[in-house]
TrEMBL record:
Residues 252-286, 664-685 are annotated as: Disordered. InterPro entries: Cullin_repeat-like_dom_sf (IPR016159), Exo84 (IPR033961), Exo84_C (IPR032403), Exo84_C_1 (IPR042561), Exo84_C_2 (IPR042560), PH-like_dom_sf (IPR011993), PH_domain (IPR001849). Residues 148-250 form the PH domain. This is Exocyst complex component 8. SUPFAM superfamilies: Cullin repeat-like, PH domain-like. Gene3D superfamilies: Exo84p, C-terminal helical domain, Exo84p, N-terminal helical domain, Pleckstrin-homology domain (PH domain)/Phosphotyrosine-binding domain (PTB). Belongs to the EXO84 family. CDD domains: PH_RalBD_exo84. Residues 252-263 have a biased composition (Basic and acidic residues). It comes from Iconisemion striatum. PROSITE patterns: PH_DOMAIN. The gene is EXOC8.
Length: 685
């Protein structure tokens, strides 16, 4: 078989193996059905051996597979971080390059205007004139002196109501107005457009329209009570239009303001000199400019140093530089140069904040626990953004707790899983609380946010807890042990002054109530079933060991049982009453483990209903039984139930709850067995 199997294995592993051709040849060579069956058996045996070898290899390398998967996960996280760092560096370099280019361009433009002011103005006007010659009905636009072209381009106008294209237009932005001209379908010479509308820059507002494909690259012009929507070629052109429109409107407003100030008549009376040191003129005097020394080397290099710190993820160094600058400028006057420096620095602060926010985002690796977030949190607090730091820190920890709960494997007994779940959750909550207290020690306003977060985290824990304990229909004893474990772990939070016991109870009360009522119904049904088969005979345990075990069980429940047993293995009680006693005492103990103040009446009424089932059965048997011996035996069981069991239930309930059980006491008094006549029925009222 081994030689034949090896030959068959080589044939099947051959790259040129053709299954159809192989089956065809095999059918021709075989003598009958028996040969085909034998060959099929060989192939099946070979397949089983291959599967077994594969399974052995998998088991052999199982640990290596797990370790490899972990390493791949870590590598993926690190590659993601590296990619983000490279993206940040690229964006920083692009912003620096753009800033340098724009600075050079502005300086060149200013130099040209300073060197050739007249020629530059004339060139702008000639350009506008040549363009307006192509617009029909726009000859009088150049009558306004000083008007020149700023920007122009093709646009597509859309209907405001149904967002459908209306017409193609060309827009001319001048230093004081905006001209909209429509395209002529039949051109006449150089004339391409027809005058449509002219808007003063102060008469309209420009609004960016959010992209909603296929409607994108649009902006809106609002003129009360109308509005118009235009679409440009791409996002780059849209950005240029919005920036240039905004800048042109600001320039016009500034010029109009200066013109009004110049037109105000000046009084010939000599101006009084103010002696108030807090009166500051809007135009900074020369000595104020000179009083703030910004020529220091570290100030000159501050923007570049901040860029380097952000690129190298030296967040502490960046914040130290900002603190140093703020300390230096604290008592200095706010001059124009200081404003320009602050604009540059504010841009770096924005970039630094974005990086710190990303460090705290839940998308980042959650390994390292709450202490791993301390660096980013502390720097955000130093930047004056403690509220944002608090929000991001709590979001990060919520994601970490949720991930830890999700990764917990459900295996083995439910109680074992709950032990692991409570250990993971409450340890994480305790560590988070301690880290929060460390990071936000000086920000007491953030503590309320932590309390709210801890409640939402507790809700997440209870969802996982209830799904495993109550939704899976575990026994009441298992559910009671699980709730007891959760309560004990919850008490650990009181070490730091955080008491979540009430939150835990309020979230569990619905499921616990349902479990108690369900188990109560089970006990009542079981008791009724035993009552239907009641023969009122003494209980025979057959062996001394069984009797000893029953005595121990009753003793552990707090019930005196010695007077109802003899030297042999007989018990002077009915099996039904003994089984009922054991089941009810078990229900009481489990119910006390599950007890919440909100469930006081639920547990009390459940016990009362269970006891009533047994009491009514004994009462019915006493009234209906005719045999004197059996009637005496029933009375003995009734006495045991009334004088021994019910007082123990009442006392144990009051000890566990700390409140008197009035309903149980009233029930015991109303069911006292009264012997009326030896020959008459003894009844339980």
């Amino acid at each position: 078989m081994s030689e034949t199997g090896n030959r068959l294995r080589k044939l099947l592993e051959s790259p040129n193996f053709d299954p159809q051709n192989y089956v065809k040849q095999l059918s021709q060579q075989s003598d009958g059905d028996r040969d085909l069956q034998e060959h099929r058996q060989k192939i099946q045996t070979l397949a089983d051996e291959t599967a077994q070898n594969l399974k052995k290899n998998v088991y052999k390398n199982y640990r290596q597979f797990i370790e490899t998967a972990k390493e791949i996960s870590y590598l993926e996280s690190e590659m993601y971080q590296l990619s983000h760092i490279l993206t940040e560096q690229k964006s920083i370099m692009e912003s620096i390059t753009q800033a340098l280019l724009s600075t050079d361009k502005d300086e060149t433009s200013k130099e040209m205007q300073a060197a050739f002011p007249k020629e530059t103005e004339e060139l702008k006007q000639r350009t506008l004139t040549s363009l307006l010659e192509k617009v029909e009905g726009a000859k009088n636009i150049m009558d306004t002196p000083g008007r020149h072209l700023v920007y122009n381009g093709d646009l597509v106008e859309f209907d405001v109501d149904n967002m459908s294209p209306i017409q193609k237009v060309h827009a001319f932005l001048m230093n004081d107005c905006l001209l909209i001209a429509t395209w002529l379908p039949n051109r006449r010479g150089t004339v391409k457009y027809k005058y449509n509308a002219l808007y003063d820059l102060e008469s309209f507002a420009v609004v960016n329209v959010k992209d909603n494909p296929p409607m994108k690259d649009m902006f809106k012009i609002l003129m009360f009570p109308d509005s118009r929507i235009f679409q440009v070629e791409n996002s780059k052109v849209k950005k240029e239009w919005l920036e240039i429109l905004d800048e042109t409107k600001k320039n016009k407003a500034s010029k109009d303001k200066h013109k009004k100030e110049e037109e105000v008549p000046t009084s010939p009376v000599r101006a009084e000199v103010s002696n108030n040191p807090f009166d500051v003129d809007d135009d900074e005097p020369a000595d104020a400019e000179e009083s703030v020394d910004l020529s220091l080397e570290w100030i000159q290099e501050l923007p570049e140093d901040l860029d380097v710190c952000i690129a190298q993820r030296d967040f502490e160094g960046a914040v130290d530089l900002l603190d140093k600058l703020n300390e230096y400028l604290k008592d200095q006057p706010v001059t124009q140069k200081v404003k320009e420096l602050k604009v540059k620095v504010d841009e770096r602060v924005r970039q630094l904040t974005e990086v710190l926010v990303f460090e705290l985002s839940p998308d980042r690796s959650l390994r390292g626990g709450p202490k791993a977030t301390r660096r980013a949190v502390s720097q955000l607090i130093r930047l004056g953004q403690s509220t944002k730091a608090c929000e991001l820190f709590l979001k990060n920890r919520a994601a970490a707790v949720q991930t830890a709960i999700r990764q917990l494997r459900i295996e083995g007994a439910t109680l074992l899983y709950i032990h692991k779940l409570c250990n993971i959750f409450f340890t994480s909550l305790l560590e988070t609380a301690k880290e929060f207290e460390t990071d936000f020690a000086g920000n007491t306003g953030c503590y309320s946010a932590f309390v709210v977060w801890s409640k939402s985290a507790m809700t997440m824990f209870v969802d996982a807890f209830s799904k495993q304990v109550f939704d899976s229909k575990e026994s009441l004893s298992t559910a009671a042990e699980c709730v007891k474990v959760a309560k004990e772990h919850c008490q650990q939070l009181t070490e730091i002054g955080l008491d979540q016991t009430f939150t835990l109870q309020s979230l569990l009360v619905k499921d616990v109530k349902a479990a108690l009522l369900s188990y109560k119904d089970i006990i009542i049904e079981a008791t009724k079933h035993r009552n239907s088969e009641e023969m009122w005979r003494r209980m025979n345990l057959m062996t001394p060991e069984a009797l000893t075990k029953l005595k121990d069980e009753m003793r552990s429940c707090g019930i005196s049982f010695q007077q109802y047993t003899g030297d042999d293995c007989w018990v002077n009680l009915s099996y039904t009453i003994v089984a009922f006693t054991k089941q009810m005492m078990s229900f009481l103990e489990e119910g006390l483990k599950l007890y919440f103040p909100e469930l006081h009446m639920v547990l009390l009424e459940s016990l009362r209903e269970i006891i009533l089932v047994a009491v009514q059965h004994v009462d019915y048997s006493l009234r209906c039984e005719q045999d004197p011996e059996k009637k005496a035996f029933v009375l003995q069981n009734a006495t045991f139930l009334h004088d021994t069991v019910l007082p123990v239930v009442e006392r144990r309930f009051e000890e566990g709850v700390g409140k008197p059980a009035k309903q149980l006491r009233d029930l015991r008094k109303s069911t006292r067995p009264v012997r009326i006549n030896p020959e008459s029925t003894t009844s339980l009222v």
